[in-house]
Write a sequence for this structure.
């Protein structure tokens, strides 16, 4: 499938590499391709900057946000939270219309250090903001509650015996995303929590996740919904 | 042990009944004993009002918030979120000083219907507000992420293979609460997430829990932290 991924951080890198490995036709989108390739060294998370990562992954196609979004039959939003709305605007509303948009972004606010707070929560969510910005896109909030490596390899933790919660207004889009994540990555338990307002649940869960990450000093930590 | 329980809703009822059954010396505290006993019928959650419940549980001692708090070597805060700070003020600061206070309350705001939002979150929490109100109490946020029946009988769901997260500033108090919950109720996995600011994590998780409750139409739903 043709997939556009917006955002070249760790989430975008891991998703793009895995989806290309699985045979999908991916464009990884960024604001400025040459500027992204020029970033080298190590970022504040201890990860290689995009330019260094890309030297080892140059088989992956790069493009602008608009080129990625136009390319994708589905698109995935993997930006940092504070860049999310700018990225979808740069992607061009028409390039998302009628298409599934998997929104992975979280509204983390690091302006007061670690642990971050959320820039929106409780009575609104970033998922809802994206859906309001792109009323013709089929926004499915997904993957925002887990680490990038766990997204594409759920069996890497606890044999895959844990849960993923998704949200969105379009039942058909949620069913397709669920089938895709099960088939492509091996997810076992995906819970459709409801309409896009339920994205508040997984975004607010970040307040727990970020502290579990800190406590166990390992981002490979997640939840199983026991019922 | 002498235990004071503040709050006569479902959480207070279930905890009081179980702790008395286990041999503890409990006073269940309320604002006005006679008014509580006079409430009959069914409440908005479909549960019997306190007066009807108490007819079948009259072996449990009742008292004012202050009588309960003075009685307890440990106290438990089982009020609704909007009544929490009033209850601890009515309980009397001196009656909590130097004692463990297990804070179970959640800042749920039903003023806009269901699902509720939170009246405080993100950069503060009800647990922190209680600790600020009672600086000499050893506040341990606990149990606020699970249904009352699951609190006292964790094995009733998934064989008990799920997690409880606690928060508080006093390491010794958290260790004692952890040992108590394991010994008395059979909890298996209790995670000390950190100081009382980490109560934000479990309180904000309510945004997920309340929607899982709605989706599965069953309050017996919780999480296992997979790591």
């Amino acid at each position: 499938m043709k997939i556009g991924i917006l955002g070249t951080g760790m989430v975008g890198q891991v998703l793009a590499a895995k989806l290309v490995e699985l045979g999908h036709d991916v464009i990884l989108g960024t604001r400025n391709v040459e500027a992204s390739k020029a970033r080298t060294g190590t970022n504040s998370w201890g990860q290689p900057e995009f330019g260094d990562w890309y030297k080892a992954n140059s088989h992956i196609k790069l493009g602008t946000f608009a080129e990625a979004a136009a390319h994708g039959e589905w698109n995935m939003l993997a930006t940092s939270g504070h860049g999310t709305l700018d990225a979808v605007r740069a992607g061009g509303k028409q390039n998302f219309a009628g298409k599934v948009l998997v929104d992975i972004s979280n509204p983390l606010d690091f302006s007061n250090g670690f642990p971050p707070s959320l820039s929106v929560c409780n009575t609104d969510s970033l998922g809802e903001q994206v859906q309001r910005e792109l009323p013709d896109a089929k926004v499915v909030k997904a993957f925002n509650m887990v680490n990038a490596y766990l997204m594409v390899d759920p069996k890497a933790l606890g044999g895959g015996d844990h849960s993923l919660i998704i949200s969105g207004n379009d039942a058909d889009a949620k069913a397709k995303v669920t089938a895709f994540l099960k088939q492509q990555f091996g997810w076992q338990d995906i819970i459709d929590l409801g309409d896009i307002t339920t994205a508040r649940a997984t975004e607010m869960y970040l307040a727990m996740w970020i502290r579990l990450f800190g406590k166990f000093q390992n981002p490979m930590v997640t939840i199983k919904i026991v019922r």
